Amino acid sequence: MSGDALLLALFMVAVVNVSRYVSTLRTLLAIMRECDPLLYQQVDGRGFFSSQGNVSKQIRLFHYIRSQQYHKHHDPVFMAKCIKVRRLFILASTFLMVFFIAIFVVAYLGM
């Protein structure tokens, strides 16, 4: 097995997982707009994916999901989507770290 094939396979898996994460995050923001408009405004829902988005507000959503504050929410659909976003973030982050580690392994071991 060549190092290039390994890197390509890991890269494709990482891309698929990141795209699943972003898609689920967009869905979460759409659900949030309907069920919790105040939180939607606090995390800059409208400008979340724009280049003019407020990063400190986007980080607020990250901390909201990381600390699992959504367990106190009244909407079960919103809670389920937050759980899915959290799991996909962990999965995508892990695959990206594995991919970058594999780049160094392949580069230094000369696979």
TrEMBL record:
Q: Which residues cross the membrane?
A: 6-23, 88-109
What is its subcellular localisation?
Answer: Cell inner membrane
The UniProt keyword set, sorted, is: Cell inner membrane, Cell membrane, Membrane, Transmembrane, Transmembrane helix
Lineage top rank: taxon: Bacteria
Q: Which InterPro entries match?
A: Universal_stress_protein_B (IPR019598)
Q: Tell me the membrane topology, using the record's own terms.
A: Multi-pass membrane protein
Per the record, the major location class is membrane
Cellular component terms (Gene Ontology):
plasma membrane
Family (UniProt): Belongs to the universal stress protein B family.
The protein's name in its UniProt record: Universal stress protein B
Species the sequence originates in: Photobacterium swingsii
